[in-house]
Amino acid sequence: MIQHLDVDGVPTLLAPTGGPMRAGLTFRVGTADETLGRAGITHLLEHLALAPLGLADYHVNGATAQAFTTFHTTGSETDIAAFLTAVCGHLRELPVARLDIEKDILRTEWSSRGAAAVDDIPLWRHGARDYGLTSYPEWGLNALTADDLRAWSARWFTRENAVLWIAGDRVPAGLRLPLPAGTRQAVPVASSALPRTPAYFVSGSRAVVLDSVVRRRTAAGVFAAVLERELYRSLRQDAGLSYTTTTGYDPRGDGYATLRALADALPEKQDAVLGGFIDVLAKMRVGRIEQADLDATIAKREDFLGIAEVDAARLPSYALNVLTGEPNLSIDEHRAELKAVDLADLHEVAGEVMASALLMVPGGLTADWAGFVAAPTHSADVVQGTTYASRGGNGGLRIGVDGVSLLRADSPLTVRYADCSAMLVWPDGARQLIGSDAIALHIEPTLFNLHPAALPVIDAQVPADRQIAMPARTPESIPQPQAAERQPGQSADRSWWEVPVMALSGVATLLVGGFNLLLTLAMFTTETEPGDEWLWGVVAVLWLLAVILALPIVLVWRRRRR
Amino acid sequence: MIPAMPAPLPAPTFDPGAAYPEVNDLHKALVAADWPAVQAVFANRDHGHRAMLVGMAGERSGTEPFLRRVYDHDPTDALAGALLGNSLIRTGWRIRSSYRAQHVSREQFDQFHDHLRRAEQVLIDVTARHPADSAAWTQRITIARGLELGQAEARRRYDRLAQHHPHHAPAQSSLLQKLCPKWSGDWDRAFAFARECGQAAPEGAPNAVVLAEAHLERWLDFDTDRERIAYVHSAPVIAEIMQAGLRSVLHPAYVDRDDWVWIRSVFALMFSLTGQWGPAASQFTVLGNLGTDYPWDYVDGAEGFTKYRNLAYAKGGRS
């Protein structure tokens, strides 16, 4: 049984455990509530709230996810009460003295994290907004002020927007949750950057990953487990193509869930893993789902529902449902729903998976042959405005009243100011506009014949809170137009000696070659006298000499053409 | 005395209907858009014969709308799916024409690929529903080649088929093409696979034909006639063609089954090229005037057939 209680106005859930006491305080806020220009604000707040606690000798931690932020701990009753009370106190009175240190820690955390295969998927599915923001760096950190953080805290970290869960026999004595009053916040609406699905995009990773959105229900969770068994059997056991085959099922809080599947691949087997993966999906889609897989999955889940710790174990996910207002089932209701799942239900889930699928394929491969359309990598249209020619090659940059277009052969990039999630600003003049559809339009002023007033026009159109200051770049990292495109007369890296050397070499070649030509003709037209055969040797040596003398011309010429 | 003129040999024909009369029934049923009649042609055929007939059905163009209707009406019908897939592939390949890649226009390639993609999407479903369908898997190996889906993927498709039908010669022949350098493979892997096909199959089975084809492809790939002649006159090649023949068409246990015209055609040509005229003549005797586009298209079709048949009969004697 999970008890519903109340601590200082915060809904509180309590379930018994045979292990040590643990607790979690979860707020309905996460990266999906942020904007790209302020990305990282929730994570920074979470760090600030924990920072003054220093080194605890019991387990404490915080986690910022897409729609939830959780502080959790394991320890004695006193430790837990002290931890949660302190966290709430810090959220209310932010320890802003530590702001810069915590920003540095977050930057280090970002740069040292290993890039996972699935990191890019949210960006491709949702764009540079709400659920897609987790794909981006925490670009907002630099500009965030203490006031920004206080306002963010006041809006999201309130008692109405929180839920506390405790695995233990009672609410710790002396626990206070001094949170301000506020309102429960709805789950953000998930945007889509995919005009059509099933879609695919190409990644540098060696894994094949399927991302899909399905209606949240028991059958969908069961389907994920059944799919994992099928992938394991087909790709690992039978064909030996993959080592890792996993799936995941993650309710989003809005009635839908993200369902993912991953299979890794050896470099020389990536095409076969993709093919095998697509065949597994097809097998599920046509409804050839193994009853044994369904039975095994249900048995495993029923076992879980039967353990003594089941209520304590499901407290964290139960708490999320309380926050989002989604229903929570009793154990008996869970059992009944599991028992009711049949192959037809799984077949229906398979159809939803395919209809919403976004497939990530390894570099060099495509999935258009299997009916997946390429996710957009360029814009469908361009803005009207003034075009500035590129200094190297074709194309140009068009700046209009409502946006910017980078004109390329048949794949233009357009970002409209109204849809601009953020603009990266470098001190040397470079800009990168990121559209809400995740189209990134990079402007290097050195590569275009830009009017000096052009960049300020763009800067004036993008609101200040969407501009992200980037650190200065070294001169070598600023791209320059191709050497071939240089203006005539610019010959900075040509040496003074090149022309004289070529002239000398030419004259010497002409002299020796000319003389030798006459000698050769003479040798051919007159009978060689006995004893004069050595003259043929002279001819050969002189020709060789002419070639050697001509060599500097060739070498210098090639040097100049580079 | 004037020697008696031998009766002129009948002109060769590569029309599948000449060798397999049921193909004519099939074409008639397809043109008439008569699905029960199509089904009747396939009734009680084993998988090998069924796969062969599916392949031959695609030679008649214009059947796609009819097959699409039948398949859409019942997507669980493996035969309709396989025939539709084959029809799309053959139409696509006709658009590409049989030229080497550098002579095909961009537009031809786009249409070719588009047809193969449409075929693939039908056949993905057919193999998902009927994982043992040899006709559908064989076509998916061909598609892996045309769409350049990769060596490992072509091999995976073959392996899926081989789980159910370990010695399906047409699929082996299709994979061999993919393993050749012209489709981004290499000769080592091509020959390794070809030898494995012959050795793994029971004696008297036709699968050693894949090794004969590997030598044919190697022969064709040389740049000059001199190299080609040197190749087929080298002792190891002559010996290996003979071994392949002894394991298959020359083996006492060998019997002509599905695809026998193609199998004997390959051996007739390879025995001829390697100057083994006796065995060549014996193949031509059984073939009579029957042949298949592959391999004879490599030697000017009917012209090559006639030339080598005459040589074989002259030098190897008519058995």
Number of helices of chain B: 18
| β-sheet strand percentage of chain A | 15-25%
End-to-end separation of chain A in angstroms reads 78 Å
Structural class of chain A: alpha+beta
Number of strands of chain B: 0
What is the fourth-level CATH superfamily of the largest domain in chain A?
Metalloenzyme, LuxS/M16 peptidase-like
Shape of chain A: elongated
Strand order of the largest sheet of chain A: 1-2-6-3-5-4
CATH topology of the largest domain in chain A: Cytochrome Bc1 Complex, Chain A, domain 1
> For the largest interface in this structure, which chains are involved and how many residues does each contribute?
A-B, 23 and 24 residues
Number of domains of chain A: 4
Run of helices and strands of chain B: HHHHHHHHHHHHHHHHHH
Low-confidence stretches of chain A: 483-493
* Major beta-sheet overview of chain A: 6 strands, mixed
Per DSSP E runs of 2 or more residues, the count of β-strands of chain A stands at 20
Report on the structure:
The longest helix of chain A is centred in the C-terminal third of the chain and has 28 residues, at 498-525. Chain A has helices at 41-50, 77-92, 99-112, 121-126, 146-156, 218-238, 270-285, 291-306, 310-313, 315-324, 331-340, 343-355, 454-461, 498-525, 534-561, and strands at 3-7, 10-15, 22-27, 59-64, 69-74, 162-167, 199-203, 208-215, 245-251, 256-263, 358-362, 373-374, 386-389, 396-399, 403-407, 413-416, 420-425, 431-435, 440-443, 467-469. The termini of chain A are far apart. Chain A has four domains: 3-117 and 127-167, Metalloenzyme, LuxS/M16 peptidase-like (Cytochrome Bc1 Complex, Chain A, domain 1, 2-Layer Sandwich); 199-374, Metalloenzyme, LuxS/M16 peptidase-like (Cytochrome Bc1 Complex, Chain A, domain 1, 2-Layer Sandwich); 385-472, PH-domain like, CATH 2.30.29; 498-561. Residues 483-493 of chain A have low confidence and may be disordered. In chain A, a hairpin with a 2-residue loop joins strand 1 and strand 2 (10-15). Chain A has 15 helices and 20 strands. By secondary structure, chain A is of the alpha+beta class. In chain A, 38% of the residues lie in helices and 19% in strands. In chain A, helix 1 crosses helix 5 (146-156). With 319 residues, chain B is mainly α. Chain B is 68% helix and 0% strand. Chain B contains 18 helices and no strands. In chain B, helix 8 (134-146) runs parallel beside helix 10 (169-179), helix 10 packs parallel to helix 12 and helix 12 (209-221) crosses helix 15. The longest helix of chain B is centred in the middle third of the chain and has 24 residues, at 106-129. Chains A and B meet through helix 7 of A and helix 7 and helix 9 of B.
